[in-house]
Design goal:
By secondary structure, this protein is mainly alpha-helical. The chain is about 35% helix and about 5% strand. It has a three-stranded antiparallel sheet, covered by helices on one side.
Amino acid sequence: MKKNTKHKGFTLIELLVVLSIIGLLGAVVGPQVMKHLGGAKSKSSKLQVEDFGAALDMFYMDNGRYPNSQEGLNALVQAPTGLEGWNGPYMKKKKIPKDPWKRQYHYVSPGQNGPYDLYSYGADNAQGGEKENADILSWE
């Protein structure tokens, strides 16, 4: 019986070609993936603001008013003192979610743009901006 003593494997050239191809794919695909991930946070924030709007409208229907600035969004999950019509919690998970950048949403009531203003300053946490830095506003 004859044993095969030759070792089969990849040559250095073959490995370099494969690594080059993987590098090229990463360079082409990476920016496209990052572009979509960035836009996803803004879209997620817009959906959260809409969910807050629905919860705030339910609060309004039960109490005849929106939570004031002092009560804030916490009034959607915990009854403010002295409020008899509260029929919450109005949020599904019984807690107030943060925006996709892990910061609290800003809530002012009465608002300058409606009965309340609810907004996130986006990725840069500064007023104004474009793309991922754009503000997410309840009144737009």
